[in-house]
Records
---
Amino acid sequence: MTAIRPLVAGNWKMNGLGSTLGELADLRARMKAAPVPDADVMVCPPATLLTRAAEVLDGSDIALGAQDCHPLVSGAHTGGISAEMLADAGATAVIVGHSERRIDHGETDALVNAKALAAYRAGLTAIICVGETEAQHQDGKTLDVLRGQLQGSVPEEARAADTVIAYEPVWAIGSGLTPTPADVAEVHGFIRSVVSQLLGEGESSAMRILYGGSVKPTNASELLFVPDVNGALVGGASLKASDFYGILSVYCDPPAT
Ligand code: PGA
């Protein structure tokens, strides 16, 4: 398999005001002053901050992503934000199917699939999230759940160039708990094999599969160099530039201190 360039994406979730943009400026400065991580870097602030974040990041190597999109282009959908609107605001990617949307908003695999197609339509990369709940994990259903989510959520049109899969065990998100590196390796290898069945070996061998769930500077080196892990989707630890850079620094050579 050819080397896949890792991606570390920060998901700010429903956090961040104009005053928080200083963290983005701080991150930009750290990436210029300190060793540059050998990885693609992205920040996904709330939609309200996209335009201003795009200004802060203009000309930097930090990409801008969004956290969700409506499947349709436009119309009478109060509160909805289309993928085209996100692209217009400066985003180049969008997270779809995050477990918080699947759980809080009842999003189905079919809806997530439609949102990924909307992302492609607008020229955005789709970061498609999958992950089992704690109960499913305890019942030994993890791989079955993931197979179903991938079959339902990943469009036939998905290509490695515009699609990223994020494996986020629901029980690991925001909990400080993480799977063992061996479990992460098994699950990521399984995800790649399902993607191969869905899209073919060529796409699956080039597709980035991120791990997400309680990634911190202290555990990043343990989790991110596992086979078939091509980066991270980071929640809480992406809100502070120092923590986020601490995670990115595992991709620096020599490691940043
Ligand atoms: P966490 O969130 O890093 O705070 O666990 C990860 C995510 O939900 O993307």
---
Amino acid sequence: MNTLVDFAAVQQRVAALKLPGQAFINGRFVDALSGETFANVSPRKGQVLNYVASCQAEDVEVAVKAARQAFDSGVWSRLAPKERKKVMLRFAALFEQNMTELALLETLDMGKPVAESAGFDVHAVLECLQWYAECCDKVYGEIAPSGPGALGMITREAIGVVAAVTPWNFPMLMAMWKVAPALAMGNSVILKPAEQSPLTALRIAELAAQAGIPAGVFNVLPGFGPTAGRALGLHMDVDTLVFTGSGEVGKLFLQYSGQSNMKRVWLECGGKTPNIILNDCHDLGKAANTAARSMFFNQGEVCVAPSRLIVEAGIRDEFVAEVLKVARTIAVGDPLDPATQLGAMVDRAQMDRVLGYIKQGSEEGARIILGGERASGPLADGFYIPPTIFDNVTNDMTIAREEIFGPVLSVITASDHLDAVRIANDSPYGLAASLWTSDLSQAHAIIRSLRAGSVWVNCFDGGDITMPFGGYKQSGNGRDRSLHAFDKYSELKSAWIDLQA
Ligand code: NAD
């Protein structure tokens, strides 16, 4: 990764990249049956990178058939777990060998700083792949406490054909959180990456095949949501649909399931993370630095972005001044420049959506104390919005209720810790929450009061692949990461053997 230190050298490497554009079905790259493609635009300068196969219902049909045949053949699903592990570890090793290329493809495609794609994303994906590879031969069944007359065996079996529909904000990582446990369990997988960022998924499919994952077991169908995504959701032979994306589309998948075969639907949807800073926070400098950097990480296009900064009244002014100081230092720029800390919004539509929220925030009475406009000058060709902070936000304002998915922070004042918890929970979302306090008893009590899937104390986004991740309320259902993810990719079978016969 240390090759990515010089902007000119990075640009040279990018110019030499091969950009995948075909779908990957049944072990090979193919065009969409219709021959249709879509323009894949880079948000850096708004230029077309390449044309990518636009898969439709007929391509979904072919992929599901291939996935089902592979599953039924047992070539992967009935392979001895330790053999599956070897193949998956080879997949992880190939991923590791190609991490620089994958980081560059990711940055080029969706605009995150190369320092982050190379310094964070690829490492998190590798950890996920290695961890689930190791799980292949370490997940045991259970024997029920059924007494001397019977033997009750509880086993986990692969569920069959898994379809994964994923977003553009962490294209590789969100995909791998699903693909790795699904494959480790022995399923066949069809991945539909977001249309804004198809490149890394296609390259990863090639690496999986090179590692020895059999044809039909891992397929990647680039295409649009209302065509390819919908066809997967409605397909009668997809057993499980796993999704990360907006709540709006998550709700559609629940409908698709009801209209088709009652496939299992697991959703990781949005968030509006409260970041609570109490008067007794012992290190305001660290808390302010974390509040600003976590908010503007990945351009704020993060489902757990701490977009509601809830500060107790006693430290409010001092704390906000500190956050402002840090936010002003964040370097906005071309995502391929290794010095950049905040890159481009994924596309024009997302940029316009975020600018619309900024306008609405002002109209509803919040006060902009930083940013608030699209970047101009040398960045005017691409889709850039510098760090934006609103003060005087109340929790009923649109900018405090809806997920903006951009670099926009709202400061909300709480009268005391109870008020802070009330504001934090007053949201349709419940993905995560963060709390800064030096009182451990109070921290425990507040952890219990917060309606969120993850709670971080005196840090932000703590945890790793060993910790489950997912949401309460309209943030979704089920959990990615950890052994709990296997609930999505397996059926439990109960076998009762009468020993008295
Ligand atoms: P999105 O819901 O628009 O798209 C997600 C995926 O759904 C894409 O692959 C898209 O093609 C597909 N899709 C869109 N319309 C569809 C339809 N009608 N039928 C079937 N599929 C359809 O979300 P996005 O804009 O790509 O991503 C941003 C959202 O993802 C945010 O709301 C964010 O919070 C959420 N997200 C959640 C998590 C999490 O773990 N909870 C992680 C990352 C992102």
---
Amino acid sequence: MKPDKYLKNYIAGALVPPESGEYLDNVNPATGKVYSFIPDSDERDVQKAVEAAAKAFPDWSSCGVRKRFRILLRLADIIEQNLEDFALAESEDAGKPVSMAASVDIPRAHENLRFFATAILHFAAESHHMEGEAVNYTLRQPLGVVGCISPWNLPLYLFTWKIAPALATGNCVVGKPSELTPMTAYLLSKACMEAGLPPGVLNIVHGLGPKAGQAIIEHPQVKAISFTGGTSTGRKIAATAAPVFKKLSLELGGKNPNIIFADCDFDQMMVDTLRSSFSNNGQICLCGSRIYVERPLYERFRDEFVKRTQFLKVGDPASPMSDLGALVSKSHMEKVQGYLQLAEVEGGKILCGGTPVEVGGECEGGYFLRPAIIEGLPIECRTNQEEIFGPVVTIQPFDTEEEAIALANGVPYGLASTVWTTNLPRAQRVAERIQAGIVWINCWMLRDLRTPFGGVKHSGVGREGGWEALRFFTEAKNVCMKY
Ligand code: NAD
């Protein structure tokens, strides 16, 4: 299943060009060169997609869970059978190492489909008995046409995380992947055709957020929006969708703390802290970007962390030797570099990294940056308050549990956090008090797809994962029957 040079929208079961006839450049971040073109879709394409979804809805929503289960499993199998093609496409589009796309992104995409395909077989609603008088039962009905909008950092992983529960519950979807990383969603449309997904059940419209994305949000027939992306975009989406009472699930930005106590398992903590800081160049919403270390361990931690970070190989995403590939775009790289300059202005000391890497060869024009560690910054500075979403972390010592919790909670975000200690009562005390949707104790990014996933404060509204996602994509209707 190979990428094409000119991508097409997937509407009503067919691959179609955009109504405008216009295309946007798609850049390979590892080379800085345009390598394909994506539809510059607008409200006309979205209108066609919504019409197709609305037409498909009566059959899809009433065909029964077993049929939906079988088709979604087939789709998962096709992705798995084409893992190499999908992984290469994801790497070329996003700049991440092929090894990461092949071991994390694409396997998780087919797992998302399998997880929700099977979950729907076990999904049940409640009943409430009023003794001697009546019985209430709850119907969980699909919403109709729903919008799923995803970001560039884990493209197919997050796109399927949304569309799988939406489709499993019987909705029809108009989806939009990020304009920076459209290729695996395009391959997904080919896979849907091969899997026999009925036309119109899933429609994929490519293009810019404020144009194609906004048209999905605004469309009166789109009943719910599942969005993952930046906090400021989430705010705009809420401002459009809330006044017309659309159901909203918003998974937004983060500024996640790692709290490391001196009694932790040092070796395991180091391995996972390196991963939580720089996996995918720090471009994972769950990456820890503020690291707080109990003072007796601070210097040992700092020296070892700097040493291991300097050892990370930044290079050609196609090479199995590369730990880190390119950042997703030129403007994102400039944004990250801007924060590094700001950190110095704010009095921070860059202990390592932060400089561009000349990879050379094919990758001469790519957006490569050495991962950076900064120390000496207070919690209230912008570097510690704002999401950078790149290979940049700050480190700081703390003296008491109380202080660590105050630092962890001292930002507007609240997505994920990690706590490292062998003192389990303390770990649980801290977990209770951290303002975040996710707390990892002595691990990072260990994911069970049944668990609720999402953030508090400016990191989002609502929860994905497990039953939460199936509940989001259904409307509860209580039926009360007197006897
Ligand atoms: P973004 O907000 O710029 O874009 C996300 C998606 O929204 C893209 O498809 C974009 O085209 C679309 N979009 C933009 N403006 C829109 C509008 N007005 N209407 C409708 N759609 C619009 O985010 P990004 O830069 O692609 O992704 C990075 C951000 O995503 C980071 O802030 C990161 O923390 C966040 N993120 C959060 C999670 C989570 O689970 N909480 C997961 C991954 C990424």
---
Amino acid sequence: MLDVAVIGAGMSGMYQIYRLREMGLNVRGFEAGSDVGGTWYWNRYPGARFDSESYSYGYSFSRELLQEWDWTEHFSPQPETLRYCNYVADKFDLRRHFQFNTRLAAARFNSDEHIWSLEFEDGGSGQCRLLVTAVGPLSAPVQPAIEGVETFAGEVHHTGLWPKQEVAIAGRRVGVIGTGATGVQVIQEVAKNAAHLTVFQRTPNWCAPLNNRPITAAEQRDIKASYERIFRMCRATANSFLHDADPRKALEVSAAERLELWEKLYGEPGFGIWLANFSDILVDEEANATISEFVAGKIRERVRDPATAAKLIPTNHGFGTRRVPMETGYYEVYNQANVDLVDLSETPIERITPRGVLTGAGEVDLDLLIFATGFDAVRGALDRIEIVGEQGVLLRDKWAQGPLTYLGLAVAGFPNLLTLVGPHNSATFCNIPRCIEQNVDWVTDAISYMREHGYQRIEATPAAEQEWTEHVFDAAQGLLLTQVRSWFMGLNSNLKDRDKPRLLVYAGGSPRYRERCDEVAQQGYAGFDLT
Ligand code: NA7
């Protein structure tokens, strides 16, 4: 029997295996893909890249690794990030601890023996004392629920299940459904080579320039000398990025001061325009309207045809209340002769046909159809596993009205299950590897504590779970994002049981979350029953 089974070989699974192996435990990882990388293994679509500064994204646990690895761009493209994941796996000899091509179908808790029985899709099975899920928050791809979706005769791919072999774009008629962070990345890349690109947009998002560029040799030296400062800053900011809110309020400064900050942020790399903006723009509608109008102005400047520009400007939510897609020449794509925008709010998709997509505006013939339609966010990858806790309760049934967790890491009634980056965990709203390292370190310490004290079982108490869940809702109070349809709120139009808003993320900030986790540990894992 394994001491610990880790599900997933992405950024969190790899680091978790590394830490537990260092403790000398009998541990094994199981991964559905054929190799390491998680998000960066599956999302191979053209244009996939970081929106986090590369050097703030890599693992911080090994100084040697930090000094050895050269990121080539401020925001690394997917192929380089996947190389990085492989480099880490090789350097720390992690691959031999994983069983690849092995998808977990079910996990059942045996209350008498305090162990989990595992069933894999290939018919294999296993047992472990502790089950650590590292399944990722955006890893359960969702196909669009559109009539006729299976009838399309051309080539079709979801961005999150992109094939390893190259997909031809040049000379082809390509359609993209979806204009979230992924759609925006794929559209701006495909537009360069496609004979013709049709973008099917249901809801426009507020996009902002990534301002990416190569890292020069001098910058590389500077980055390597500055890692301590970089990670210190990540620890101090609300979402562990190298950006933190401007303490001033948009409504308390002059219009000229507002413009000065916005022009600066619009021209700077990364999420600054979203996260380093005035402190009231994400909580105050009037303040939010000022920045939304600024970004709308930029869209109007960049898109030549005013009618097209108007379609690209969101009207049902304010800037930053959904995940801000970062772009490089996205709006200019719509000035190209080979690109059409179909506004589905005017002419909805009627069905997908063998030839292409039929909307109220007619049928668009396509050779390649790309679904950038997103994921069953945060909880989807857990829900897709039959996780059965005490008294035969299924995890997804327990969460029918929304997730209930303690620290986003544990669930009452599901002993010995620890969910890295689970719902209501600060890692859901974070420069994710920074929060992953915190999650993994915390879980590793908890397991080590259990061993020192001879405990075989750890379980969140219902009271602790309730208190944490209430805190998660309190922490999100007043944020405009809670009023808006998005995956943060657990909404997905393609899934029947995702039709009511159910907050999935922890918006109280990573410093506060870290403090809380540390307190719990210092108090001998307060809120957990240890047996
Ligand atoms: P998102 O952000 O969930 O975006 C999905 C997009 O697909 C969004 O524009 C949706 O429109 C659109 N969509 C979904 N289903 C349909 C159907 N049936 N018809 C038309 N349009 C549809 O997913 P992403 O992959 O872009 O990003 C997810 C996260 O991954 C991202 O936030 C990053 O953190 C990484 P809608 O807005 O629902 O009208």
